[in-house]
Specification:
Length: 309
């Protein structure tokens, strides 16, 4: 398995977290420790890094990598929605910074046995946590026409959602759809030639939608963001990297709601109203052209950061 993973918006994220040497930092999306390695390298022995991931392979790889930098870290195998329980078990109430990188790590995409990628012919899976009973194969073969259309449209922003869903339902009447390539063929036959001739893989948006559905990513994100904010020390920051407009809208709207003082009908701020948080990124930070050139997967990423007052 190829464990090479390039962390997205690394410099911008580390700078945005405003790391204190003796602080406590929580990486809720550890992956292959790309961001965590840099965080740990900036901490003194009095500081602490906590890394969370629901993937065994990610935990094992990151442990090996981080141990070469220092020993002031703890790794937890769990879903980031369990942040309350994770910190309680560690007897920690508040932290100085939290990172959420919502992209799927490159090794997960590149492992042909995980079913995340349309580039490999493998069983439809897409589970970040292998204990999850819901797989992409179950979604494709058991969801109704209406539900398939909805998730392809909402989570994948797929223009031909209905056509693809209809052809999936038709195909599974004859035989269970089992592999990624079987699904790719259905998607290709559901789109007009003008779409197939465009740059980019025609199955990308449907595969994205299935991954989000299988891992319940949207609902988990909403719940986790609120929990994260309650665990920040004064001056602590939450940094979130999104790769999908639906995710980014959730983060953007929540951060705006928590930081913008709404005026009255004369557009004057309400007297003595002070928000609990400050928006550090007025606009979402996008990757530079050079980063996109070196790591094409960064092209859709956006970084937003908020600070506890």
């Amino acid at each position: 398995m190829n464990n090479v993973h390039i962390p997205v918006l690394l410099n911008e994220t580390i700078e945005g977290l405003n790391i204190k040497k003796d602080g406590i930092y929580l990486d809720l999306t550890l992956g292959r420790a790309g961001h965590s390695s840099e965080i740990l390298s900036r901490l003194s022995t009095k500081g602490l890094l906590i890394g969370v991931d629901q993937d065994d392979e990610a935990i094992n790889y990151s442990d090996s990598r981080l141990s070469k930098i220092g020993n002031n870290y703890k790794l937890v195998r769990s879903n980031f929605v369990n942040i309350d329980e994770i910190l309680k078990d560690l007897q920690i109430e508040k932290v100085d910074g939290i990172l959420m990188d919502l992209g799927v790590s490159s090794p997960q995409f590149d492992d042909e046995n995980r079913g995340f990628s349309y580039r490999f012919d493998s069983e439809l899976d897409m589970r970040m946590d292998k204990r999850n009973p819901l797989t992409a194969k179950r979604v494709v073969n058991e969801y109704s026409l209406e539900d398939l259309t909805r998730i392809f449209s909402e989570y994948g922003e797929e223009k031909y959602s209905y056509s693809i869903a209809k052809n999936i339902v038709k195909a599974r009447e004859n035989k269970e759809i089992q592999t990624t390539f079987e699904l790719v063929d259905i998607i290709k036959h559901s789109k007009p030639m003008k779409e197939l001739s465009k740059v980019g893989h025609p199955a990308k948006q449907v595969f994205q939608a299935l991954r989000i559905e299988v891992n319940n990513e949207i609902n988990v994100l909403k719940e986790t963001l609120t929990k994260c904010l309650s665990h920040l020390n004064k001056g602590g920051r939450l940094a979130v990297i999104t790769f999908h407009s639906g995710e980014d809208k959730i983060v953007k709207h929540l951060f705006k709601e928590l930081t913008v003082v709404v005026g009255n009908r004369y557009d004057l701020p309400l007297v003595n109203e002070k928000k609990e948080f400050t928006l550090i990124t007025k606009k979402g930070i996008k990757p530079s052209e050079s980063e996109i050139e070196n790591n094409h997967r960064s092209i859709s990423s956006t970084l937003r950061i908020i600070e506890k007052n």
